[in-house]
Amino acid sequence: MEEKTAVGLAVLWVTQDKEVARSMVFMYTRNSKLKGWWGQVRLIVWGPSANLLANDVELQAELEGLKSAGVELLACKACTDRYGVSDKLTELGIEVLYMGAPLTGMLKEGWATLSV
Length: 116
Known about the structure:
alpha/beta, 5 strands
């Protein structure tokens, strides 16, 4: 049986736990891209993580490493609007958009997903 390779990796960051963000989400997405574990790597900021990121300067500083590595940064607009942080995340270089259809497309295209 032929092994199917995923199109890319989509990491859904949904927790407001800062240590999970630093020790898993940011570390794994950055290394996944830098070490070539996945061709395309997308970090999707969703739910409470949007509020955490908008208000935490240490995490904001760590975004630069993700961007430099080539990780694509996306955020759910419905969530960012709910927390009133859409403009802030856009200023940080994150593409803010309604994510229901794009995420569904990634799933249908065979993207590997990890939710944290």
